[in-house]
Amino acid sequence: MKHIAKVLTLSAISLALGACSTGLDKSRNLGNPAVSGNTLAQQVCSICHGEVGSNVNGNSVNPTFPNLAGQQKDYLVAEMTEFHEHTRKDPAAQDMMWGIARNFTPKQIEELATYYSKQPTRANPNPVNPALAAEGAKIFNEGNLDKGVPACMGCHGSNAEGNGPIPRLAGQHQDYLYKQLMAFNSDEMVEEKENNNAKDDDLERPHGVAMEGIAHGLDDHQKHAVAAYLQTLK
Amino acid sequence: MKQSNLLGKGRGPLLALLGMASLAASMDASAIPVFARQTGFKCVACHVGGEYPQLTSLGRMFKLTGYTMGDANDIFNLTTNVDRPPVAVMLQTARQFYTNTTPAAGNGTAPSSSFDLQVVSLFAGGHITDNLGAFVQWTWNKYDGNITSGSQYTQSSGIDNTELRWADRIVTPTKDIIYGVYTNNRSTMSDVWNTTENWTSDWIGYFNAGGAQAPGTFMMGATAQHAEVGVGAYGFLNKTWYGELGVYKSITHGPLSFMTGGATGSTGVPLLDPSPYLRLAYNKEWGPNSFEVGLHGMTSYAHNYNPVLNYSDWSGSVSTYRDLGVDAQYQYVLDPHYFSAHFRLTHEAMNNVLGVTNAGGGTPTNPTDTLNETWADVTYIYRAKYGAMLFYHGATGSSDTGLYGMGPTGSPNWQSWMPSVFWAPYQNVRLGYMYTFYTQMGGVSGNQLTGGLGPHDFNTSMLYATIVY
């Protein structure tokens, strides 16, 4: 009997507190398709892709998490879809975004992409080595033609603003950009091993084929340099 | 029977290893405990370098928003999570090594000859409604009793850290406000920075005599028994300012007594009259860094022993412990490097009842005593796989021969250092080695302790393997 009383009391407490629900517009439930993209942006995404004083603008504090403000909408849709489908497999994607996006609906992805693409961009507050950034500027504008690397600005735009499925890189965190270049580099090595017939499952970023050879054509120092330069762009 | 004969004396550790191996072999990347199943995150998302219980910024926010973030299937506004069971298990197997092979109070509770499964914890919890979540832990300890006081160890099992939390978060372009209420069964369990006793990383050496003869403050030590139930309210403004007030009381009867099940009405477990708990903190995050500095405090009204029952009882008089401390935390979280450092200093003022045995089993000889307890640790982890930690734990205070009987003068002065290394081949598995050096006990560092022993005689080490699934 005592146990029954405990269970009943607990159930009553739970229901009473549950009744104090603040509603769908403040839900953190990633499994409920009725929660809007805007609500998810506020309640969930802002924890990592947000900063104090302006929590919902999509800019992040820790460089583990990319800035999303002003990102190309098509690119955001593509990436969230890849996280949802578990096709993008760089380590941070697996650690966090696979879980976040596993139940995203196309509608939520569309709403989130629209939301973040419309947020105002800002200068990245983190410092970079100016000499390194200067080297990166040269590669960004002129490429590394000896190794077959074209100028980055050719596709990403003269100010790295991106275009549709080609991401905006301006102001992005140096560490994040470097790690993505390393992911493309690693994919290129898999491709070489498989005579350019690698399966998507074996690649960290299978939809980044265009970047594989480019990343591989930059040595480690040059990858850091380009990433440093991009972080300084506004 | 035949099998156990074949395996003979080694069957315990062998079976433990076999179990671990089969578990490890069956794990896939997403097969991890309760909150990870709910969020789909790997350990490293919420724990620094995957080193639980240390929380990252994301881990702190997950807890402060009531364990509600992640997937939940609502049925009548309550979650079932049928596709991902909201339960998990933690197993710890270990072998202890003691410098002092002559049994004496102060060695760990596990026999030095054992290499066996020593701790099993079961977890449940997560999202219940969009605002309500839970963290429930139940633990079985193989060696809870002190083997040095007799030839047999005693097992124990009972409710461990348990919390029900309701939270709301208001986010606008310029404001971020989290507020909530909770009920749990240990003061400091609600905290999100890993500076206070409940959430420091030395839990792993529980049976390693890591706290041999440690004179802890009431707030950090005595309330570890989960012998109390508290309610509290908190607020976190702009990820910067944190404030919390709670009140704790021992519950021995009624529906909430399940939260103290098996933990009250026995030797060494204090019964508390309503005792207030305070927490204030300033938090700052920049780049991969985060920093916290704060105040923690509690005034505990603990009933002394009833001489007939020989344990803390409502009929006993009341001693008061006023604890107030400062604490700080620094973290660097950016793969492949993870670093954290923690510090706390807690000052305690005791009001004793002379000649009466207090809730902790000591009979003070001074009407008032003071104690300062210090904790510091640093952790470095590479690629969330290879880690090293160093803990320091110390105490200083007024001498009281009735409370601190180990040394010649009744001094509580005490110091220990605990270096350790570990390897996490999978995120669910951790293998480690931990050493504990004692440099001061009972106010002395030489062989002036009872029985002609010195602090170093209590040095211990431990090999361990932990699995969470």
Structural description of this entry:
The complex is a heterodimer of chains A (234) and B (469). Chain A has two domains: 25-117, Cytochrome Bc1 Complex, Chain D, domain 2 (Orthogonal Bundle); 130-232, Cytochrome c-like domain (Cytochrome Bc1 Complex, Chain D, domain 2, Orthogonal Bundle). Chain A has 234 residues and is an all-alpha fold. Chain A starts with a helix and ends with a helix. Chain A has helices at residues 2-19, 37-43, 73-85, 91-101, 106-117, 130-142, 153-156, 174-193, 209-216, 220-232. Chain A is built from ten helices and no strands. The longest helix of chain A is centred in the C-terminal third of the chain and has 20 residues, at 174-193. Chain B has a single domain (2-468), classed as Porin. Classes of the chains: A mainly alpha (234), B mainly beta (469). Chains A and B meet through helix 1 and helix 4 of A and helix 5 and strand 6 of B.
Task: Lay out the secondary structure.
The complex is a heterodimer of chains A (234) and B (469).
Chain A: H1 2-19, H2 37-43, H3 73-85, H4 91-101, H5 106-117, H6 130-142, H7 153-156, H8 174-193, H9 209-216, H10 220-232
Chain B: H1 2-7, H2 11-26, H3 34-39, H4 43-46, H5 57-64, E1 74-75, E2 78-79, E3 87-98, E4 115-127, E5 132-141, E6 156-171, E7 176-184, E8 229-237, E9 241-249, E10 271-273, E11 275-286, E12 289-303, E13 305-306, E14 311-312, E15 318-334, E16 337-351, E17 368-382, E18 386-397, E19 414-426, E20 429-440, E21 460-468
Quick summary:
With 234 residues, chain A is an all-alpha fold.
Keywords:
heterodimer; A: about 230 residues; mainly alpha; Cytochrome Bc1 Complex, Chain D, domain 2; 2 domains; 10 helices; about 50% helix; globular; B: about 475 residues; mainly beta; Porin; 16-stranded antiparallel β-barrel; two-stranded antiparallel sheet; disordered N terminus
